[in-house]
Structure formats: structure tokens, C-alpha cells
Amino acid sequence: MWREVRDREAGKILPSLFTSRVRSRRVAALQLSNRKEIVSPHRGAVNSIQVDLTEGRYLLSGSSDASVAIYDIQQASDYDEYGLIAKHRSLVAVDKHHEQGHKFAISSAIWYPIDTGLFVTGSYDHDIKVWDTNTSQAIMEYKMPGKVYGTAMSSIATTHMLIAAGSADVQVRLCDIASGAFTHTLSGHRDGVMTLEWSSSSEWVLMTGGCDGAIRFWDIRRAGCFLVLDQLRSQLGRRPAFSKHSLKNANAERMTPGKNSAKAPPSHKRVPSGSVMKNLNNSNKRQSLPRGSATQRLHPGMSSSLNRATAHYGAVTGLKSTKDGMYLISSGSDSRLRLWDVESGCNTLVNFEAMRLQTSKPLQLAISHDSSLVFVPCMSSVKAYHVWSGVTFQTLRGHYESVNCCYFNCHDQEIYTGSNDRKVLVWSPFSPAVTEMVRSHIDISVIIVCDNRKNQILDVFKINVL
Amino acid sequence: MATEMGNEMSPPGAVTTPRLIEKATNSTAQEVDPRILKAIKSATRFSDEEIRAAVDALMDQMKKPHSQVRYLAVLIVDELFMRSKLFRSHFVVNLDQFLSLSVGFRKNLPLPPPSAIATNLRSKSIELLEKWNVSFGIHYKQLRLGFDYLKDTLRYQFPNRLENAARLQQERRERHLRTMQILLNKFEYLKENFTSIKSDIQSTVDEIGECLEIANAKEENGFEFPVDGDEVEEFNSLTLRQIRLESLREGEKVQENSENKAIFDALRESHKLLITKHMSSVQEWISILVRVDATDNKFRDTALKEFIDLRNLIQSLKKKCTDLGIILDPSIKQKEDEDLWEEGKIEDYKPECTTASTSTTEDFLTKPANQENENTASVESEPSVDNFVSSITDREKLLAEAPVLTWSPFMLDKCAAQSGVLANQRGLEIEGHWGRVDPDAMIPAEKIAELNFHCTVYKEQPVEIRPCLAPLKKGGLCQRRDLKVCPFHGPITPRDNNGNPIEQGFRTVVSDSQPSQEVGELTGKESFTEAIYLKTEQSDLQDSLCPGKEVIEQLAKQAVKNVHQRDREAKALKRAKLAKIRKHNEEVLRDSAIASTSYSELFAEHTVEAALHGNGAGVKVKKTTLASMLKKKVTAKDRIARRLLGSRATDASSRQVTLGEDSKYREAFPNQW
What we know:
A: alpha+beta; four-stranded antiparallel sheet; about 15% helix; B: mainly alpha; two-stranded antiparallel sheet
């Protein structure tokens, strides 16, 4: 490591390369953190976890006992008697006894992506509430037609501020914080919507996974969905770098910027199940297009609602797109993980090794900073898979009951997991030097460069000084 | 070099630990075989590879569907866990799996049979988890998580050793603090009242001193004891001189008479006060001063010093009093009381045993008797020594013929008899239970005398009533026990073993007339030998008179030998017979066992086994295996049921059973049909 530091100083390697190497190394050394402990005030299963996107400092967790809590994960509230274990207690906790609190389990709790002044909770009592963090008062409330399974806000949106909410109802609703009203009602799913994810490349694209096993892509500027993922339409591995077709598509995109719908028309037709190869697909699409429009004179956007393609057998329980927004990972109640090419809408046929997933609840997946590892809650453990090969990289064992959610904090390379056993666990890179030093109670202030952000180092220092 | 060795050895080395672990867990014992355990420990010390292999092997053992295997594995895990850091760090990763296998907290993964050992396994692993958490929890998050989960979420009961110990400690500390506080309070009290306490004691001491002075002065004036040197010369021996000296000393003692009775009474009173009240209070204050940790050390030291002085003074006074022969009854009474109490306890254990009671009475009679003796000696010693010696023998004689009294609580409580006794001042707090208590209630002296009246109940001497022993028609002897006349066989006469009456008159005549040897033969071996010895002694005495002395001696020896031999032979015969009978019985039992059904074969095996175990024989016993633990034990009840239901009895018995059930049902639920 010191050699790399020297190389970076000498200019032999790029700073970004250095950073990513250090990060990867740290991610590879993840294990249950002994020094950092989140003291969960929850009395029920932890269903949702998120660290705020602006500072990367405040962890929000929602639980089945209708409580939400916020922790400071950088600054410990207190230490144990030996100064070895940093305990992070909740800064804010809202539970059932709060006058505006939820009545039933909270299924999702998310931060307002712009700052930490607001957060949003969705609950089984059919309500979505927007909270002011500083006063811990609900400032807005949306009544949904059914139990709320999931909420999502786009982190890259600049022109809208919509909360996408999936509920036991078939319709996905978009709630506008500015007006306090539903702006969109997206219908297409045939069953409740378990999970939602905004695209990380386009602020207008929303992806939803339903209990009917379908994953639908919506462009919120248009009516209806423009893509339904079909598990039988597949391609082998990653998309070839530059094919003629993709070049053409790229050109089309450049001509109509932000218009993803340019690719949409081919996909909203039902695709023959036997078609595997991409060019075959294309020819089929061309054949089926005039016939479909001829038989049913539907609104072009609504035609996809007839598409009954499924992405999973059973319900889709979790969705996570890669950082670049090119790929989507989905988990289903069929205990499968699938990697989808968003551009082509194909199943990439990556075989993720055997796993067993919880079926009844939405799962929150996490993906590492460079999109090389995906963390999946598999019953009482969390498994890390290589995204491109599907090989199990690591199994994080520590929870005693099913894990519901995990979140990867890319600043500190830490993972937070919430489980049915009411705990929130921190998984952090193992650093033997630090633990040894603390254990022997030698008060040496050594600067260990492990991150280009200062947070981690600061943390280590505090412990040593104590 | 060492590492090379390790590397070389590692392929076989990696094999040893799992094999050892497997061997250790394949046992039905409650503990891991200590030798194998030691071998495992030394093997794991060999290299890190071994420890990794041990972790894997132990987890494999934990997965086996047998609680005994798991139990032993848990014990091994504990041994290694407490010793090796590497083992801990490897083991802790799979802790949730380990716990689900050892505690069985997952519903879909219950602990395997046998159930008794499964519960054992659960409690043991919970206990161990607590221990690990206490000692290593801070270094391993997994341990804390597992502990918290079992404790807080699943609400398992942990033995909570540490907390209990802490609580005990806390309690002890509190008690100590409380006692210190009490001591301090007393100390403060003493500080305030020191002078008054001291003066109180001092006044009593002074009183005694004055009394003694007066008494002594009176003695000197009034009573002149004849002390002359003439008679001394008559006694030469040392012992006699000593006796004289003693008697002289005794003579110096002041005797109580009508003149100085008042003084003596006063003296006695104040002495009693001094001994009972002041002495004990001084002792108490000293102990308090020693124990208290007050800030005022100066006062404490001076007070302590003064109290010790006081105690010495009191002791010297007491000594003076006893030296001067003032027999202060109360103190002696007290002593006797104490003695009596202890002796009484012993008597309680064996009330029947007369010898014991005499010895005990003797014990507590000695003290007053001694003193009495001294007194009598002092008075009577002057005339002659014989008298003195005789007095001692007298005492023994008297003791020998003194009646044995059963112990009673008021037996020697004479002081109480003189004056009344406060009824409610016996130290027992009886307040409040039955209404108001009068603390000044007196038991009058005559009442006490009445209560002390010693009465004895006539006890019949147990007489052994001999059985009639007349021969019966159906064989055997009559076992009726009557005093004089048996209603069936007339007056009771002594009879021999066959029931034939022995004529007593004849016998006595014979025993008189026959030579002693024959009598011996008749009555028994012991008397026979005795007779011979007697004879030899006689012959020894009159050696010159008897010519055939050696012959007689030889004869006697021969006779003794014969008797001994006969004795031995008879015993050996008896033993042989018994052994034969036992052997036969065993054989019969075994035969019958082998001959009977397969069910009882198992049973027979058990009995043989048991017998073998009992004899401590090293015959190879069929080892109980793990599989046998899983098998359900066939009890006698099962066997009977099987047999009942098995053969021709099936129909009838089943009908009977159902009938019985039916009637029972009817009885239990009379209004439900």
C-alpha cells in the first residue's frame, strides 16, 4: 500500500485508480465490525435502511414497529467502558406514540435526495408521510389505496421532485412534494408493486417490480410503460461493445436527446419465447409491429399493458440498478437474481450461485461503488456476488433472522444491514493494525491512509485518543 | 526449522485433529475423555492448520443428528475457545450456525434425540455462551449478537453467574457498611458516656475492694486459726507436706458466718454485678473499639487502654475473690448451668444407656465435689493423713452408690429457689403475640420449689420372656412366650434344641459332681477352655504338689487346639455351603434367563453385567454405543403390553381394556354419552 502511495505521488498511477484500488481492497476485507455498533431502538424487524446522499453521515432506518430512527454513523454517541466499541445511538426516533406516527409497520424509509432536512416513510397503514428531520413532524401525507410496499426518489432528478410509491394496489403513484398531490398514476401491473427504482442515468425513467413477476419501465413523460422485461429474452453476457444496431440506436438517441422511447417501440410487442439471439429479436419485432397495431387500435403507450411478460416466476422483490444505469439487478421470490441489460431489455443469463431469498417482503439490494459486487440478503446472511460472473464472493453471517435490507456506504466502504432480529449491523473493512493498536492500549497516533475521504481516518483517531 | 517441521508434518497433522475429535465425540460418557482432550489440545498447539481443521471438524460433528455427539463437541469447543485466539476468530464466524445446532433455537431445526441429553446440551451451551460473552464478548461482535439475540429476543434464561456474584458482593458490602455504621454509633455513644461507664465500673470495683478489706479485717480480729509448727515435723514425705501447705492456705480463707453474713452478701452481689454486667460490657467495648475505624484515633486509643486496664483490674479482683475462698455461688451456679446444658444434650442422644448417664453425672458432680472435698479436707486434714486419704476413697464410694437421676431443667437451679424469678426476663422476646406482657411478673420461690420437685417414674426392669419351645405336632417348636404357664403345653420348663425338657435339678447335681472338663463340654467351648486355664493356674500355684504337671499342660494345650480347630472347621464348612448355594442360585437364574425369550435375554444380559460389575471382574462388558442411546429402552411394562397384545390374549385383553376405558369414561363424564 505504501508503494502505491509513493507511485501516486510520483505520478505513476492516476489518483482515481489509486482510489478505486484502495476501495476495492477495503470492500474485499469486509467483515462484521466490532468497533462500530448501532444501538437500534426498534422493537420489530428493520425493513429499510438508507444513508443520506448529501453528507453520507446519517443513517435512516424504518422498522415493523412503525418506528423510524436516524443515527449518526460518523460520530459515535458514546463508547463502552474500554473505549473499544463506539456506540451509535439514534439521534431522532419517531415511533407509534408520536402523534403523527404511523400505525403499522413501516416498509420503506428514504431520504430526500437533496439534503437531510426531509425524509419520506411509507407504511402498511396506507400512508406515505414526508417528515421534517429537524422538528420530527410530518409535513405532508399521502393516502394510498393499499399497503405501501415501497417508495423511491430519484437522486439525479433536477426538474421534478416526485416520490414513486408502490402499494398493494396495481397502480404506481407519483406524489409531488411541491403540491402535495398525486401527479401520475401508472397502471400496467396486474398485482401489487413490491419495489421501485429510479434509473440512475435518466431522471424520467422509473423501474417497478410487481407481485405479478413483471418489471416495467416507465417514462414519466409518456403514458404507459415502454418496456417490460422478459426473462426468456436473453443475451449471453455483457452487450458487445459496438454493434451496428447499438450504433444506430446511439445515433437515434443523439438526435432526440432524453428520448428513450426511441427504443421502446420494438419492445412493447410480445416476443416469441424461443428467440435468443438479438438479431432474431429484431426481425421478429419488425414483423410483429404492423400486425399488433392493426388488430388493436390502442394508444401506442398503452399497448404494452397487454404485455404479460414476466421477469421472475412469482413476485419481483428487489430492484437495483448499477451506478451507470446500464444494468439492472432484480431479485424474485423464485430465489433468483437476474442481471438485465437496460438498453436491450434482455436477460444477460448470468448465473448467480445458489441462494435462498425471502419471499414475502420487499428486499433492498445494494451494489458496490464500482458496480462489481452486489449484496443480496439471503435469509439470515448477506451474500456478495460478482455482478458479471455471478460467483459468490463473500457471505456475511451475523444476523440471527432473515435480513430485509442492506445498504452500501461508498464513502466509508461499509455495509449496513437490517434484519428481522431487530438489529442494524455494520460491516466494515477489517483493519488489523487499528484493532491491534487499540487492544494493546498504546497511544500512538499513526496516520493510516486508507481513504481519500477523511471520515474513516478521523474515526480511527478518536478511538486511539480515548 | 520448526516451521519446516510443521509444514512437513502438516498433511498428516491436518488429519490428526479431526480424527481425534471424531474419536472423542464417539463416546457415551458425560465428559470428554481427558486423554483424548489433551491429545487434541497438544495437536492444535502444533500449527494453525490444525486449528482450522479443528474448527471444521467440530462443526461437522455439530451437524450430526445425535445430541451426545454434539454435547461432547460443545465441550471440546469450550476447551479450545478459552485457549486459542485463532480458534476463536475462526469459530466465531459461524457462531449463528453453532448456536442453532447447540441451542436449537430454530423451529425447523430442533435438537436431535436423545431428549435428555438434548436438554443437557442446550443448558450447557447457553451457560458456555454466557461465559464466552463475559470473557471475550468485547472482542467479538458475533458473541455479543448471539448472546443478545438469545437473551433479548428469544428470552432464554441465562444462569447469570457474573451478575449473581456481583449482587452477592454488593450485599456483603452493604452489610459490612451497616455493621460499620452501627459500630460507629456505638463508638459515638461511648465517646459521650465514657466517664459515666467508667465511674460505674469503678464504683463497683471499689465496693468489692472495701468489702474484702472489711471481711479480712474481721477475720484477723475474730477468728484465730491454730497454726503451729510442731505437727509439721511429723510429716516427712513430700506429698504430705504439700497437703499441709494446701490446708494452711485453705485455713487462711475467710469463712462465712453469722457475723459477716451481710458483708458477704454485699460482696456476692457486687461480684455478680461485676462478672455478669461489667465484665461482659468491658469485653464488648473493647471489641467495638478494636473493630471500629473511627477518625478520632486518639480517643479510641486512650479508651481502649483504659478498658484493658479495667478488664485486668476486674480479673485480678475476681482472682482475689476466689483466692480468698469466697465461694461465690452465683458464678459457680452459672458454670454448672452451662455444664448441665451441654451434658443434657448428650443424654438426649442415648437416654437408655445407664452407663453414659452415670458418667455424665459423675462429670458434673466432680466440680462441686472437689470443692467440697477441699473444704472437708481443710477442716479435717489436721488430725491425720488417713482421714484425708479415706475422704478421697469415700468420695469414690459415694459416687459409686449415688443414685442416677434423670436430667431435669431445674435440677440444680438452687439460686432461683431462694428468691423469686422474673418470669419474663429470660431473654426471649415474647412481646406482642398474645396481648400485653407484664415484664415484672414474678414466679414465687415456693412455686419454683414446687416446680423443681424431683420425681422419678418407676421403670420396670425389662425381663426376657423365654419361648415355650415345646415340640409341635407339625414339627418345629412352640414359639409362644408366656411368663409361667403356656396354655397349650403347661408350665414352662427349660428345654434343649429338640424340645425335650431338661431337668434342672439333675443338671446342677451333675455339674457339681462331674469334673470341670465335662461341665465345660456341656455348657460350651468358652467355659471349657476357661476351666482348663483355671486348672492350669491352680496347678501353677501348687506346682510342687502335682507330679504330672507337664502332662496336664500338654493335655490342656491339646484340648485348646482341638477346640480351635473344630471351630475353624465348622466355620469353613458353613461358608462352603453358603457359597455353593449362592452359585447354584446364580446358575439357575442364568439358565432360565438364557432359555427364555429374546426380550428377557436383554434383561438377563443386564443382570449378568450387573453381577460382573458387582464382582469387579474385568470381563469384557458389551459397550454401550451411541446408537443404543437412541434406541428406546424396553421396560417391563412394554414387554408385558407386547406380550398381552401379541398372542391369543389379544382379543380378550383388548376387549377388557376398552371395557375398562368405557366404564372409566362413564364415570368421569356421567352426563356425556
